[in-house]
Amino acid sequence: MTIARHPLRRRFGRLTAVVAGLSAAALALSGCLTAQIPVEGEGQSGTVLGAEPVLDGVPDELLPFYDQQLEWTPCGGDFQCSTVTAPLDWEHPDAGEIELAVIRQTALSGRAQGSLLTNPGGPGGSGVSFIRENIAWSIGDALQESYDVIGWDPRGVGASTAVRCFDADEMDAYLYDIPQGERGSAEWEAELEERAEAFANACAENSDGLLEFITTEQSSRDLDLLRAVLGETELDYLGFSYGTFLGATYAENFPDRVGRLVLDGAIDPSTSGEDVGVTQAVGFENALRTYMEACVAGDTGAACPFAGSVDDAMNDLSALLASVDARPLPYDDGRELGADALMTAIIAALYNEANWMYLTEALAGALEGDPSTAFFLADFYNGRENGEYQDNSTEAFNAYNCMDYPEDPEEAVEETERRIAEEAPTIAPYWSGASACEYWPYPPTGERGEISASGAAPILVVGTTGDPATPYEWAEALAAQLESGVLLTYEGEGHTAYNGASDCINDAVEAFLVDGTVPEDGLVCS
């Protein structure tokens, strides 16, 4: 079984979900998720010294970090890996250190014009595994020919100094166990609150003082360090989904070091957590309706279990969700498929039309009492394979969001609940729940506000009109906020656009990154 890989990570808030998915391309997998940590390939040997670091304007107290010369060692296939040492806290660089895992594929032409750093999203996505396993589907030939393509695991993620919370059994219970009592009852709410608190406590206990410094602000400083130790005076960067927020934050902090930045599947940095929850819930509801239109028309590649109008199909899906909520479906590994896990499967598949066939099979199976395909999708979403979790993306996702998003006032939470119920009625009952952020050991330090990156070179912002996870209106907002923002639009479905079905998008992005050709602001591709 293969699936186009667009996994997302949800942080269930009290009445919201902060969602930012992974990369743009349809990545064919065999149902098993790939490991993050590179393995040295057979027959490879030798260490290659990197470029001399760029030290212009670096304060004396940061020189021990910026003045690193990377040592690249083979790590399988055509890839080389290295490690960069960064401060635990950029505001107090003598307070401790962390390690950042880095991977590169050198320019296929043998004549790199520079380094292209990439971020697949999340927050919490592994840039090492993104490049190692998926570069052929994610990064076009023109970019691979012209650039040394760089991926890294951001602080808190994967093979870098990482956030640690639950073991596999504890994570299974956290993500899949069915709460006692009826949905919304005091008993049900209390169990979810208990789980959220236990998760937050485990993260604090097992992460060795790291949680306070897992922020996008700190990570943007890491990004500048990477630029410098790679020998680049300016940053060339391709960021997807959450990676657009990281890239925009970098541009705000270092506008004079912006080279060619592409931000695909943009997040609006001025949007509050509650507004994010509403916008994304409506986005997924709309994507679900688009899917249902194709399903009842027989256009998803599998026999649709629903009939009639789109409204009829949505009503039948609501009935299915209510049914598995009341009577979860047993699976042969001992787990039960409840409505929340089924919704996870639905949302995971909505990231890309290429996954609609599996969604159809999952819904048809659930109606017949067979949860196997739904668990396949939910496990893929959660990074679970054969009872083990292949990454720490759930932990890192929570860590970043709990620090990046300030708590919203109670009246905003109540308004969010009302709007989601009204505008996303199918998704609404399964969209929110207890949040670990309520029990996080550190208060959030992030602020939501517009980013202008005054003085930066042109920044290309890419938005997809039918993107459910990072809705098009966010791309419009970010492009308008950025002093040098240039908006590129893809009229279509799915999360992010580059290296997908549109040659128009691909050509514009690659001409910008390779040649510096800035497309016309407002260019629309379909």
Describe this structure in words.
The protein is of the alpha/beta class. It has 2 domains: 21-161 and 213-266 and 449-525, Rossmann fold (3-Layer(aba) Sandwich), CATH 3.40.50.1820; 165-206 and 272-389 and 407-443, no CATH class. Helices cover 38% and strands 15% of the residues. It is built from 16 helices and 17 strands. It has an 11-stranded mixed sheet, sandwiched between helices. A two-stranded antiparallel sheet has the order 1-2. Helix 8 (273-296) crosses helix 9 (310-326). The longest helix is centred in the middle third of the chain and has 24 residues, at 273-296. The radius of gyration is 22 Å and the shape is globular. The model is unreliable at 1-43 (pLDDT under 50). InterPro entries: AB_hydrolase_1, AB_hydrolase_fold, Pept_S33_TAP-like_C, Serine_prot/Carboxylest_S33. Residues 116-296 form the AB hydrolase-1 domain. It comes from Microbacterium barkeri. Keywords: Hydrolase, Signal.
